[in-house]
Amino acid sequence: MAADGSITDPLLVTVLDTSRAAREQAVVLIDRIQEALDAAGNGPLPLEAQAEISKQQKLLNTNIAQLRGLHRSAHFKARETKGQTAEVRHEVDVLHLQLQNLYYEQRHLEGEIAACESFEHTYQKLPLIPVEEFLALHPEHADDDENDLMVARINHERTEREALEQQRVELQKRKQKLIADNKKRRDDLANLDKDLEKFIDAAKPIQKLFEKVV
Protein backbone atom coordinates (compact mmCIF):
# COMPACT_ATOMS: atom_id res chain seq x y z
CA MET A 1 0.00 0.00 0.00
CA ALA A 2 1.37 3.41 -0.93
CA ALA A 3 2.55 5.51 2.00
CA ASP A 4 1.20 8.80 0.71
CA GLY A 5 -0.34 9.67 -2.64
CA SER A 6 1.70 12.87 -2.79
CA ILE A 7 5.01 10.95 -2.46
CA THR A 8 6.03 8.90 -5.50
CA ASP A 9 9.75 8.35 -4.93
CA PRO A 10 10.21 4.59 -4.27
CA LEU A 11 12.79 5.15 -1.52
CA LEU A 12 10.63 7.67 0.35
CA VAL A 13 7.60 5.40 -0.01
CA THR A 14 9.64 2.60 1.59
CA VAL A 15 10.70 4.93 4.41
CA LEU A 16 7.11 5.86 5.18
CA ASP A 17 5.93 2.24 4.97
CA THR A 18 8.68 1.21 7.38
CA SER A 19 7.72 4.08 9.69
CA ARG A 20 4.13 2.86 9.68
CA ALA A 21 5.26 -0.70 10.44
CA ALA A 22 7.37 0.55 13.37
CA ARG A 23 4.42 2.52 14.74
CA GLU A 24 2.15 -0.51 14.49
CA GLN A 25 4.80 -2.64 16.21
CA ALA A 26 5.00 -0.05 19.00
CA VAL A 27 1.24 -0.32 19.50
CA VAL A 28 1.54 -4.11 19.70
CA LEU A 29 4.30 -3.75 22.31
CA ILE A 30 2.17 -1.41 24.40
CA ASP A 31 -0.74 -3.84 24.26
CA ARG A 32 1.48 -6.76 25.34
CA ILE A 33 2.90 -4.79 28.24
CA GLN A 34 -0.54 -3.65 29.37
CA GLU A 35 -1.94 -7.17 29.08
CA ALA A 36 0.96 -8.55 31.12
CA LEU A 37 0.56 -5.89 33.82
CA ASP A 38 -3.19 -6.48 34.05
CA ALA A 39 -2.66 -10.24 34.31
CA ALA A 40 0.09 -9.98 36.94
CA GLY A 41 -1.67 -7.43 39.10
CA ASN A 42 0.76 -6.33 41.78
CA GLY A 43 2.92 -9.43 41.37
CA PRO A 44 5.93 -10.02 39.16
CA LEU A 45 5.47 -10.62 35.46
CA PRO A 46 5.51 -14.27 34.40
CA LEU A 47 8.57 -15.37 32.45
CA GLU A 48 6.39 -16.11 29.44
CA ALA A 49 5.03 -12.56 29.46
CA GLN A 50 8.54 -11.12 29.85
CA ALA A 51 9.74 -13.21 26.93
CA GLU A 52 6.86 -12.00 24.73
CA ILE A 53 7.53 -8.38 25.67
CA SER A 54 11.24 -8.83 24.93
CA LYS A 55 10.38 -10.36 21.55
CA GLN A 56 8.13 -7.45 20.60
CA GLN A 57 10.77 -4.96 21.80
CA LYS A 58 13.38 -6.60 19.54
CA LEU A 59 11.00 -6.42 16.58
CA LEU A 60 10.44 -2.72 17.30
CA ASN A 61 14.19 -2.09 17.54
CA THR A 62 14.68 -3.87 14.22
CA ASN A 63 12.07 -1.64 12.54
CA ILE A 64 13.61 1.49 14.02
CA ALA A 65 17.10 0.46 12.86
CA GLN A 66 15.79 -0.19 9.35
CA LEU A 67 13.99 3.16 9.40
CA ARG A 68 17.19 4.99 10.34
CA GLY A 69 19.09 3.30 7.52
CA LEU A 70 16.42 4.19 4.96
CA HIS A 71 16.28 7.75 6.25
CA ARG A 72 20.04 8.08 5.81
CA SER A 73 19.80 6.67 2.26
CA ALA A 74 17.09 9.20 1.43
CA HIS A 75 19.36 12.03 2.58
CA PHE A 76 22.22 10.72 0.42
CA LYS A 77 19.91 10.48 -2.59
CA ALA A 78 18.77 14.07 -2.14
CA ARG A 79 22.42 15.14 -1.93
CA GLU A 80 23.18 13.24 -5.15
CA THR A 81 20.28 14.94 -6.92
CA LYS A 82 21.56 18.30 -5.73
CA GLY A 83 24.96 17.50 -7.24
CA GLN A 84 23.37 16.53 -10.56
CA THR A 85 21.43 19.78 -10.56
CA ALA A 86 24.65 21.71 -10.00
CA GLU A 87 26.32 19.92 -12.91
CA VAL A 88 23.47 20.70 -15.28
CA ARG A 89 23.40 24.30 -14.05
CA HIS A 90 27.11 24.55 -14.90
CA GLU A 91 26.48 23.13 -18.38
CA VAL A 92 23.66 25.61 -18.92
CA ASP A 93 25.86 28.47 -17.75
CA VAL A 94 28.59 27.43 -20.20
CA LEU A 95 26.08 27.19 -23.04
CA HIS A 96 24.61 30.53 -22.05
CA LEU A 97 28.06 32.10 -22.29
CA GLN A 98 28.57 30.46 -25.67
CA LEU A 99 25.19 31.72 -26.77
CA GLN A 100 26.08 35.25 -25.72
CA ASN A 101 29.24 34.94 -27.79
CA LEU A 102 27.16 33.71 -30.70
CA TYR A 103 24.80 36.64 -30.32
CA TYR A 104 27.81 38.91 -30.45
CA GLU A 105 29.05 37.13 -33.56
CA GLN A 106 25.56 37.31 -35.04
CA ARG A 107 25.49 41.06 -34.62
CA HIS A 108 28.94 41.19 -36.14
CA LEU A 109 27.76 39.10 -39.09
CA GLU A 110 24.75 41.30 -39.56
CA GLY A 111 27.05 44.30 -39.68
CA GLU A 112 29.27 42.53 -42.18
CA ILE A 113 26.28 41.60 -44.32
CA ALA A 114 25.22 45.24 -44.34
CA ALA A 115 28.75 46.15 -45.36
CA CYS A 116 28.55 43.57 -48.17
CA GLU A 117 25.60 45.43 -49.59
CA SER A 118 27.66 48.61 -49.80
CA PHE A 119 31.18 47.43 -50.56
CA GLU A 120 32.44 44.93 -53.09
CA HIS A 121 33.76 41.59 -51.76
CA THR A 122 33.52 42.54 -48.08
CA TYR A 123 31.42 39.36 -47.53
CA GLN A 124 34.73 37.51 -47.54
CA LYS A 125 35.47 39.01 -44.12
CA LEU A 126 32.62 37.09 -42.45
CA PRO A 127 33.99 34.77 -39.71
CA LEU A 128 32.81 31.54 -41.35
CA ILE A 129 34.62 28.23 -41.33
CA PRO A 130 37.24 27.91 -44.14
CA VAL A 131 35.98 26.86 -47.58
CA GLU A 132 38.07 23.67 -47.51
CA GLU A 133 36.57 22.61 -44.18
CA PHE A 134 33.05 23.42 -45.36
CA LEU A 135 33.48 21.42 -48.59
CA ALA A 136 34.87 18.49 -46.61
CA LEU A 137 31.65 18.50 -44.61
CA HIS A 138 29.41 19.20 -47.62
CA PRO A 139 31.04 17.90 -50.82
CA GLU A 140 27.73 18.38 -52.67
CA HIS A 141 28.59 22.10 -52.90
CA ALA A 142 31.96 21.52 -54.58
CA ASP A 143 30.62 22.68 -57.97
CA ASP A 144 28.68 25.71 -56.64
CA ASP A 145 29.62 29.15 -57.89
CA GLU A 146 31.02 31.71 -55.45
CA ASN A 147 27.65 33.25 -54.52
CA ASP A 148 25.87 29.91 -53.95
CA LEU A 149 28.81 28.65 -51.97
CA MET A 150 28.72 31.69 -49.71
CA VAL A 151 24.97 31.27 -49.17
CA ALA A 152 25.50 27.59 -48.29
CA ARG A 153 28.26 28.47 -45.83
CA ILE A 154 26.07 31.05 -44.13
CA ASN A 155 23.19 28.58 -43.94
CA HIS A 156 25.58 26.05 -42.42
CA GLU A 157 26.61 28.55 -39.78
CA ARG A 158 22.98 29.28 -38.98
CA THR A 159 22.17 25.56 -38.67
CA GLU A 160 25.06 25.02 -36.28
CA ARG A 161 23.94 27.89 -34.11
CA GLU A 162 20.33 26.73 -34.10
CA ALA A 163 21.51 23.27 -33.00
CA LEU A 164 23.52 24.82 -30.18
CA GLU A 165 20.53 26.88 -29.12
CA GLN A 166 18.34 23.76 -29.12
CA GLN A 167 20.90 22.02 -26.94
CA ARG A 168 20.90 24.95 -24.52
CA VAL A 169 17.09 24.90 -24.32
CA GLU A 170 17.07 21.15 -23.61
CA LEU A 171 19.69 21.51 -20.89
CA GLN A 172 17.68 24.37 -19.40
CA LYS A 173 14.66 22.09 -19.24
CA ARG A 174 16.74 19.37 -17.56
CA LYS A 175 18.03 21.91 -15.09
CA GLN A 176 14.52 23.08 -14.18
CA LYS A 177 13.31 19.49 -13.80
CA LEU A 178 16.22 18.54 -11.54
CA ILE A 179 15.70 21.67 -9.44
CA ALA A 180 12.00 20.82 -9.09
CA ASP A 181 12.78 17.17 -8.22
CA ASN A 182 15.37 18.24 -5.69
CA LYS A 183 12.95 20.68 -4.06
CA LYS A 184 10.27 17.98 -3.88
CA ARG A 185 12.70 15.55 -2.24
CA ARG A 186 13.76 18.23 0.25
CA ASP A 187 10.10 18.90 1.08
CA ASP A 188 9.42 15.17 1.42
CA LEU A 189 12.44 14.75 3.68
CA ALA A 190 11.35 17.71 5.79
CA ASN A 191 7.90 16.15 6.23
CA LEU A 192 9.52 12.81 6.99
CA ASP A 193 11.77 14.42 9.62
CA LYS A 194 8.68 15.86 11.31
CA ASP A 195 6.95 12.48 11.25
CA LEU A 196 10.07 10.80 12.64
CA GLU A 197 10.34 13.34 15.45
CA LYS A 198 6.67 12.82 16.31
CA PHE A 199 7.21 9.05 16.30
CA ILE A 200 10.28 9.31 18.57
CA ASP A 201 8.39 11.63 20.94
CA ALA A 202 5.47 9.21 20.96
CA ALA A 203 7.84 6.28 21.68
CA LYS A 204 9.32 7.90 24.79
CA PRO A 205 6.41 6.84 27.06
CA ILE A 206 6.81 3.30 25.67
CA GLN A 207 10.49 3.29 26.57
CA LYS A 208 9.77 4.54 30.07
CA LEU A 209 7.06 1.92 30.51
CA PHE A 210 9.40 -0.81 29.26
CA GLU A 211 12.13 0.33 31.66
CA LYS A 212 9.61 0.22 34.46
CA VAL A 213 8.64 -3.35 33.57
CA VAL A 214 12.20 -4.54 33.17
TrEMBL record:
Main localisation: nucleus
Protein's recorded name: Fms interacting protein
Assigned keywords, A-Z: Coiled coil, Nucleus
Gene Ontology molecular function terms on file: mRNA binding
Organism of provenance: Neurospora tetrasperma (strain FGSC 2508 / ATCC MYA-4615 / P0657)
Example GO BP: mRNA export from nucleus
Annotated InterPro entries: THO_Thoc5
Family: Belongs to the THOC5 family.
Keyword set includes Cytoplasm: no
Stored PANTHER family: FMS INTERACTING PROTEIN, THO COMPLEX SUBUNIT 5 HOMOLOG
A single cellular component GO annotation: THO complex part of transcription export complex
Pfam families (alphabetical): FmiP_Thoc5
Subcellular location: Nucleus
Coiled-coil regions listed: 154-181
